[in-house]
Amino acid sequence: MKNLADEELVRLYIETQKNAYFEKLYERYCDKVYRKCLSFTKDPMRAEDLAHDIFLKLVVKLSSFKQQAKFSTWLYSITYNHCLDHVRSPHRHQEFYVSEEWDRLDLSDDDGLAEIEEMEATRLQQALQQLTADEQTLLLMKYQDDISLKEIASLTNTTESAVKMRLKRSRDKLRKYYLEGIVFWLLLVIKAALAVRWPFRH
Question: Which residue windows are transmembrane per the record (predicted)?
């Protein structure tokens, strides 16, 4: 069973309803889904609850999987949507965290990623959290999870050209917030330096 493709496991589970096939899918993806949930919440207990809910939702949704995208991409779309619903709650603070995987992406097909990678991680995190949940999700899907434009378009029910435009706008906003953060901290450093140089100046 370990050599069966994800899509074959889905087909067999739908046809036979044998738990062994679903358990294999769970075994393959439970850690990845949990880590994705953790990137949204930074709270292990909340991440576990979200991951548990996602796999319960997956059981119900498996029959609707049409192989328009890879199973992993389809599962990640469910994960993203569930986590987005969670952080959009008016009682929740919007929290997204850049995975360490961000620093290990392939730049051979660069369409803005190089610029993002050059951003210092802490300030990138701060800038990212100033974007809307949808903007953050789009950037993370493309640059952290390496989901193709075609797959993103399919998952979001839009066109590739629309995805490209939204990505560009999100990158531009991210760059703006990132640079504003640098200027803010630079001003603080200059102010502190002047205070040390002229401690009695009023």
Answer: 177-200
Could you tell me which CATH number the domain at 1-95 has? 1.10.1740.10
Domain residue limits, the chain: 1-95, 104-202
User: Pick from 140, 131, 138: which is nearest to 175 by CA?
Assistant: 131
10-residue mean pLDDT profile of the chain (202 residues): values are 88 92 94 88 89 93 80 87 75 49 40 54 74 81 82 83 91 84 60 55 50
pTM for the whole structure: 0.63
